[in-house]
Amino acid sequence: MLDGTRKFNLVDDSNAEMKRILTTVYDALKEKGYNPINQIVGYLLSEDPTYITNHNNARSLIRKIDRDELMQELVSYYLDN
Predict the structure, then answer these.
(1) Is the dihedral of CA 34, 50, 40, 22 positive or negative?
(2) What PANTHER family does the record point to (predicted)?
């Protein structure tokens, strides 16, 4: 019998999905000859999806990520490393 409260955490799954999508988008941009970092930063700052190529469905994928959550995760990662 369990008397304690269990903690449910989706963060790990969400972070893994964000990383998978971001990696796919990065690879698609690189394949098309773009500077992936510049293009992703442009998208994050403007929310203009035209910064992201349609190649390999990258534009649709990046729009599945909440920009605020992604930026929060990026800043946290940067400061922790």
Answers:
(1) negative
(2) UPF0297 PROTEIN YRZL (PTHR40067)
Cα–Cα distance measured from residue 26 to residue 20, given in angstroms and rounded to the nearest whole number = 10
Tens-digit pLDDT profile for residues 14-39: 788 999 999 999 999 999 999 999 99
Q: Give the DSSP per-residue string, 32-55.
A: TT--HHHHHHHHHHH--GGGS--G
Give 69's contacts (C-beta < 8 A, 6+ positions apart). 14, 18
Q: State pTM to two decimals.
A: 0.80
